[in-house]
Each structure stands twice: as C-alpha cells, then as structure tokens.
Structures
1.
Amino acid sequence: MKHMKSCVNCRSTRLYYAFSVNDYRLIECADCDYLGMYPQPTDAALADIYGESYALLSEDESGSEHAGKLKRATAEHYLGLIERY
Ligand SMILES: [Zn+2]
C-alpha cells in the first residue's frame, strides 16, 4: 500500500489506510486522528479550474475583438501621421 508523505495536519508519517472511495484512498493519521484522502482531490479540482479558465481565455471573443479594435486604432493613428506630410 502507498503512504502519504506526511499528515497534512500534524506532519506525522504514521498514516494508515482506512478505506477507499472511488479512486481515492482515505488515510487516517495515528497521531491526530486526521482523516484525509490520497491522492488529495484538491489538486485535481484545481487542475479542472485552471483548465476551464485557460479554455475561457482562448475562447474569449470580447478579448480578441478588443485586440482588433486596438490594431485598428493603431493603424488609424499611423495613417493620421502619414496624412500630415
Ligand atoms: Zn496527523
């Protein structure tokens, strides 16, 4: 059986397998009776959150529209400079 490196609560390495739920193992700490999941679900949850936000950024139409306006404004600015001569 795989052990957690240490208890997230008290840093103890005396961790024991309690039981498993789906893909997660529940680990019990012998020193503080902390009951935790291994692997910890927070990492996967964070990965999902970051994955979704990256997808939103790449598919953000208002963002690309804003970039287009900036390019147009810059082009008009340079055209204005040229017309002065
Ligand atoms: Zn502990």
2.
Amino acid sequence: MRSGFDEGEVPGDGTFFEPEVETLSRDALRALQLERLQAQVRRCDAGSPFYREKFRAAGFEPGDLRSLDDLASLPIVYKQELRDEQAAHPPFGRYVIAPLSEVRELHPSTGTTGHPVHTLWTFNDARIIARFTARLLYQAGTRPGDIIQNAFSYGLWIAGLAVHYAADLLRCFVIPIGATLTDRQIWYFQNAGTAVFLSTPSYSLHIAERMREEKVDPASIPLGIGLFGGEGGTETEGTRAKIETGLGIDAFDIYGISEIHPTCAAECMAKAGLHWAEDHHLIEIIDPETLRPVSEGETGILVVTHLSREASPMIRYWTNDTARLDSSPCACGRTHTRLPGGILGRHDDLVVYRGAKFYPIQVENVIRGMEDLSDEFLIVLSTDKKTGADVCTVVAEHLQGQSDPAGLREKVRRRLREALQVTPDVALNPFGTLERTTHKAQRLRDERS
Ligand SMILES: [Zn+2]
C-alpha cells in the first residue's frame, strides 16, 4: 500500500481514490483490522491508565485478543465516562496517549448538554483523516480540479477542516465559506463555478428555500453534487428529494462523530448506504439491552473502534446512533462495510408514545414528502394537565395562507399514522414561523413534566 502521493501526481484512477485499499478482499481487510486492533489495544494498555484500569476491571489482558470476535469481551466506552475522566484528570483525560509535543489540533464535541469532550489529533492523525476523507469525497464523484464550496463550519467544529485538508489532497479548489452568508453561497453557485457543495442537510434546505424566493433556477447553476452531514436525513427519501430538486444536484450522505472522526463514512454513487473506511475503523452494531453484537442486518447501536488513531484513541466507543450493517459486495466495487439507510436515529431521541416507538427521522420523511408543507418541523412532547398523559404534537408549516388549507391537517395526521403506527397531534403554522438553522437542527423538544 502506498503511504503518500508524489508531488504533482494526480490522485485516483477515475473510479477509486485508493484502489488497492478500497477493493481489498473481506478476508484481507479483516486480517489488516486484527493486526491494527492488536497493536492499538497493546498501545492503549501500555500508555493509558484510563484503558488499563478498564481492561483489568473487565478481566482482560491484551494477549487475550486473538480474533476480531474477542473484541466483544472488551468494555464499552461511553461519552459520560470521557467527560468524567477529563474532569478528574484535566485538561484532556488519561485516554490521551500521544505526548502533547506531537499533537497538532484540538476539537471538542458539539453536544448541547454538559461539558464538551475534547479530542486531539496528532500530525499523523490529521494526515490520515485528510486521506480517508478525500477517499469519501472521491467515491461520491469529486474529482481533482473541482471547485468545492465547503459550508461545513470551520473552527472547532471538525468537519470543516477535515474537508479542507482532503480538498488539498484531491488537488481541488476550495471556497472555505463555512455555514454562513446564505446569499453569498448562492452567488458563488452562480458565479464561481462550484461543482461540489458540503453542508448540513438543514442548511442546504435553507439555501434552497432562499433560491426559490429569489427565483434562482437550480438548472442555471453548474453545481453537480453535494455531500450532507452533521445530522441525519440525507438518506430519507423525502429529504433527499427536496435537496436534489432544490439545488439541482445529486445528494450524498456523509457521517462523522467528533469523538471518532469528522468524516468517517459516506455514500458512494450507488447510494447503497454509508461506506466506512474500514482500514481505520472497526464497526460493531450492539444490542442496547444485552450489550452483545447483533447479527448482520439487525438494528442496534453503532459502536466504533479506532484502528490507527494516535492522540485520543477510542476502543469500542458507544456513538448512541442507531444503524444496521451490510458487508455484502456493493455495486460500486468497494468492499468496505456499509450502513444501509445511514444513521436511523439517535438512541436518546427514540420517542415512545402510546406504546409505539419512532425516531424524528421518520416524521421528517413524512413531512418532507408532502408538497403543501415546508421542510421545517418540530416534535413537541408534553403532558396533558388534566389526565397526566403524554401528548406528542408534530408542528409543521403550510405553504398557504389559511390555518387549515383544505383538510391538510387531517392528511398529515393520516400519513403520520401510517408511518409511525400511532397518531400524534398535528399543528400547522404559517410558513416561516419555525426556527431556521445553518448548523444542526433540534427537532425534538421534551416539555413533559
Ligand atoms: Zn458502494
């Protein structure tokens, strides 16, 4: 395997960015993963009291790891543990292994609750992140020389910089605009020749809405593809269709999580789920009740292990995201495993209402599949003051003037009932009354007493 590109060499062979790695046989990939996992676990055991204590408490010695299946006997790492560890051993916790002299960047988690968890990148980490991010951009159709308009936030939020570094490896021209200046975004679409656009799905819909208001025809701009991440939704039929028509592009999902990597999985042109860079990540799907791995294809919690991360490696990190796995061959020729349908929901956001269970993303798919509604919605959970029962209300925006245009409310209720197997209340607000966001949207509000 090549370790770097020669100066001036154009990367990629037209189909794959790194053909040898991306098409490795599953057996060779598993062997590579085992070798890297054993080295990573030994390194964590020797260099991190945080991991050593966890391993010993679970009765685990690094020599016990003989196959990838043995990973299931290692303890899981939860975000709260990382927070507690950083509070007890400030500033970065004892899971940081690399000496600070080798650290290049710091990136905190973006969660809205509690103290942020800091993760660090060494020089090598930044190099590897840039490399597999370039691979992900390439597999969705980005090519050397393309103009990339990067509307992921720069600064502490990690995806902006990862894409920026990857664009350099891809020999692309970057417009580092970040998640701001909506009118300028559209101006660059029209005048700069942007071919590839990146943002959160929420922000892309906000831009599409502004384009409609300003009567900018998506067919008149040269934009070809977009990768959307930072929140789920790109792979739901309703949202994908809205982004694709609104911007006149092919839309792809890209996934990252700050404790793992900014951009660690993305769709290929076959749109068959999020492909992982499995040479750097070991993927498990875990049953949230039994904490055992589920069979391939079954839904559970995504748990990820860093195979090459130096500064703050995660061994079995509980992402709290729900997904399922498919390692069968993909039409694109890549052998790396996929999450069909992308992230199916946040485990915390699972709404349990009158015996039914659903994720906000299922509501999103209904709302965005209806022509008379805007892209925005909010799910409010509250308590009925008289009966004390839970009430679930889906608030959406209608695109017409009346309060209940021609029985639209009833139509939305019916569609939601079909999708969720339970009927929430529906409130229709006039267009423009729900909050718009350029970053990550909060679509579930719990006001239960
Ligand atoms: Zn594929």
3.
Amino acid sequence: MCQTVYIKSKKVECEIVSELKKELPNVVLIKNEMYPQINDGDCLCVIDLEKTFEKAGIDYSSRGMDFEID
Ligand SMILES: [Zn+2]
C-alpha cells in the first residue's frame, strides 16, 4: 500500500512522483529519510508528504496513507 495525494479542486489523484510534480510544480518535494533519492517514476512513499505540505503551507488531511489537499 502506497501513499497517494488527492487534489480535490482538480479531482486528480497522484500516485507517483512525476504526477505530483506536474500538479504541484512550485512545491519543493521533501524526501522521506528512508529512501536514498527521489525519481520521477517512484511511488509517493519516497516523499515525506507531511513535511512537504507543512513547508509549502498547504493544508492537508490524511487517512492512513491517503492524503487530501484542496
Ligand atoms: Zn510506495
């Protein structure tokens, strides 16, 4: 089971790094310490989504591995 990000305003679900970069081009993605690097084709487990959203000032909600932003 992998982390996902659902963007409510766009009705888009992101499951891999390239999708998240496309939807949030101005957001700096912060790497999860457990992984050596971030590759475009990786699942979103490589991203520390809490830290990423907090640093970017994006409000989010999460249920387990599923994150939602506006
Ligand atoms: Zn994963």
4.
Amino acid sequence: MVLFTYIKESKSIIDETYIFKIDRRINMKKLFKCSVCGYVSEGDVAPEKCPKCGAGADKFEELSSEATEKIYRSDRTNAIHMEIITLAEKIIVLSKEGIEDNLDPKCLAAFKQAKDEAWTIKQRSKTELAGHMNLGKW
Ligand SMILES: [Zn+2]
C-alpha cells in the first residue's frame, strides 16, 4: 500500500511537469527586458513603467526569440532547484535538532552526515541557479 502510494505520487509529479511544459510552450509570449535593472516583463508590448525600478517603456528591449525560449525553457528547472534548496534547508534544520537531541553516537554521526550532505545538495543547486542567471536562463 505504501509502495502504491509512492508510485502514484511520483507519476502525478511527472504529469504536472509535462503539463507545465506544454502550457509554457502554448503560452509563450514576447518578453521585454529592462535595461536599467534587468527585470523581464511578459506581454505584447513593454510595460509603461518597470515594476521593479520604475524606468519607462523606452528603457525596455524586446528579447530575441532565442533568449525568450531560454527563459521559458529554464523556468521549470529553476523551480526544481529552488524546491531542492528549500528541502535541503529543512534537512539541515532537522539534522541540527537531531544533533542537539544526541540520543546516541550513531544517530549523532548520521545527523552530522545528513547536515553536511544537505549543505552540498543546497550549494550545488545554488551554483546551478547562479550559472543560469549568468547565461540568461532566468
Ligand atoms: Zn527596471
């Protein structure tokens, strides 16, 4: 029963990802980037005023179809990285609680290892996101 639930949940996660990708393809719109702050706006025309820095429409440049595709294409992966970072932070908090609880040496060692591994997972995803930002996949 537990296995069945797990498979069912895994399948639904995959399905949602698939639906998300299709939805993004169909709804791909023009993107305009603020040359002052880098904010990216979605729509048929540039916004009258940048929602981030207040710059006028004349400060916006329409992104090429290649740059637009990169941003839409990377949306889901970026969201997955952010979710992984959040989960890793939860593991770090839980591990610290386990370390403080200090039931026995084996648990202590396991929690210390989990804390270190979660840190690695968190930082690896952060590094990927930083790379995406530098490559316009954001
Ligand atoms: Zn701006």
